[in-house]
# Entry
Amino acid sequence: MTESINRKVARRFSRAVENNNFTSTGSIAGQAVFYDSTSDLPTSNIANGSQGYVVSNQRLYIRGTGGWYNIATINNSPSISSVRSDSGLSSPFNLAKDGITTTVIKINATDSEGFPLTFTATTDVGFDSIGTVSSQDSSVFTITPFSEESAGTATTGTITFKASDGVNIASEVASFVLTFKIYTLEQSVPSSSTTTADTFDAGTSLTFNSYGQWRFTPGENMVVDLKMWGAAGAAGHHTNYTQTDITSTANSNTYGGAGGYSHGRVSLSSDTSYVIRVGQGGYRSRTVDGTHPQNATFLAGGIHPNYNTTYYMALGGGYTGFFDSGGAHSDSIMLAGGGGGGGFGFAAGSYAGGGSTGQGGTNQNGGGGTQSAGGAAGAYNNPGAGSALTGGHGNQTYGNNTAGGGGGYYGGGGSNIGPGGGGSGYLDSSVVSNGVTAAGNGSTPPYSSDGDRGNAGAGTSLVGYDGLIKITRVS
# Structure
């Protein structure tokens, strides 16, 4: 039989009389009274056992001897501790490409008051283009990817998972990726081509060991290790600085300067294009043949258009670099500087590129590029200073051999008759982790015994070797 209102009032009044649980105003103690803030809780004429609910902090207090005591926080929100796949992975989740294999997501959540939780999943437009989500049970969801034929144009999307105790809600956003091409590679120098790949597993590598330029676009987020050497400059000549035989080999003290070295780990974003450049080894030249701007080594420096072409210039080596999508100096992520061209006669020698400052000198010689400026030009006959990404040209008109600076974050300076300066390396510390950049020594590259190098970045008795970049996927 349902208890009547009169019966309930009588029973509660009886209990209050029995326990002497009345306030001075005659109200029954033990019923919560609402207060705006804790400063509104009464300090006198209040019976022990009285309850007060404070709206500002949503807490319940009870009056005891000496004051008010907090006894509860009203309905804490649930807490989501993790959103993981059945294989233990966390967001972002890469979905299978076969349109069949599912990904199971488990939501781990708790409620401090012990209330039962209900779970929901809300997709965004991007996710609706790559798959569907269904619930296995209250906290387990199954993600089914679309096939290549049925997927939309988006490659990423999100699901917002929510846990509710009926009053408050906790939420967690997870990202999902579905790509059918792991990367696209577009070459633009020295020739044009486009390739795509549907595999690039962790532990595998791409190696570029001849000069050129590519645009690399990953189809999914990935972490890679980059390792690179800049190109070496061309050799000068040890006997004199009016050498006209462009094929005459140099001895080792005037080989072209070596390229520098850089390595580090970088996180790449899906559908973002990155620019890869590998420097060309410096060569000897005395004619403007139209192959290169002012007969420049790719990614290094060139001959001044007024150069006396009776004698040859030892051109600097080009830098090797990895850039954000624009490919400009401001987009630099990692570079290895190129070596300068070798010196001639009494000013023979070699300056390597790389490190925070490329090798270089003064007087007859070109200076090394730094982190903020190109290397200074030699002191005589108007050679060119280095600049952003570019090595300086050798002297303009005087009747002798000369050397160009190596390319780099800032290029090395051109010389009069001595060696050209080496270009600097670079690491963007906000993007690159575990980074190292190092300069070579004369014609010897840094990390010269590394098995991945081959001949990259080494100076020789004639032309310099091209640079190299190796990209190894980590995850």
Notes: The helical segments are 5-19, 125-128. Residues 4-10, 22-28, 289-293 have pLDDT under 50 and may be disordered. The two ends are 68 Å apart (CA to CA). Residues 257 and 339 are 4 Å apart (CA to CA).
